[in-house]
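USER: Fancy drafting a protein?

ASSISTANT:
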Amino acid sequence: MTDRFLPRLKARSCEPQLLNFNPYQVAEIRAIILDRLFSLEDTLSDNRSAGQNDAKKSDDQTKARVVPLMQKPAIELCARKVAAATGDLRKALDICRQTIEMVEMEAKKKERLERLQQQRRPNPTPLAEIRLGDLENRIAGGSLDRNTHARTLSNPSVAATGTAGQDGAGTGVGMTLQDAPKVTVEHVKRALASAFGSPMVLKIRSLNVHQKIVLLLLVDRIRVGKAGTDSQMGKIFDLYTSKCRASNKFGAVSRGEFQDLVSMLEVTGLVTLGKAKEERLRKIDLVPRDIEVLEAIKEQDILGAFVQPQLSAVSE
């Protein structure tokens, strides 16, 4: 649309003026993130300038304050990575949002686990409700006095006093911004890997398990220096079936299904297939680097038997 209207505007001497938006620098991104976080407390002024000259002033004003929700090293890492990659402020704010959501999910999961553990704990009868005579009766093999037992059942809050001071301490106090768990550098690293990860890595992560095994076998052929005749369709299939049987975790697919898997990998641009008279003689070449394949699959525990030998070879 721009290419269509610009010549018409130029012919009528109404050519618009070009306005360039320079990418944000590290100090600017850092200052804006801090300003957004401090605005949650409603303590910063509304007429803060967003210019580069005011970035240092903003840093001096917020240096002595405690930043809510995010650690300062995490903010610094986010600002530097985004400034070096694109300088897009929207990307930096989106990464901050993702990391805060990560921390929120982790806190909720931890709270649910603690609640389940408290529910599974037995609720013993408080010692304050057991009289000396009843205690002697219990030691002798008897039961608690009926009056004591009835009083305990009628007032369950009394029975909970024995554990309220330990398990329920602080449960009624609301969590403030300063007390809330904060985003760490590790959270930012995970969000950055998702935002600026290699397209090949993201594409490999979306594959199914059997397609990932095929890629790992091709990496193995490259590492051992047998990427020539040993990377033919038939030999890769034989290696695939033997590896699946040895792992006792995967059921190998048939030869026809295996050819379909390789064809799908070719469509996605992860492998290339050579020409041959027979299908089993077609050579399979890996398109991404072997490091990218291992980086995309190393976090999947079910493929540990396939990935660990390759990772050890990389470290050596």
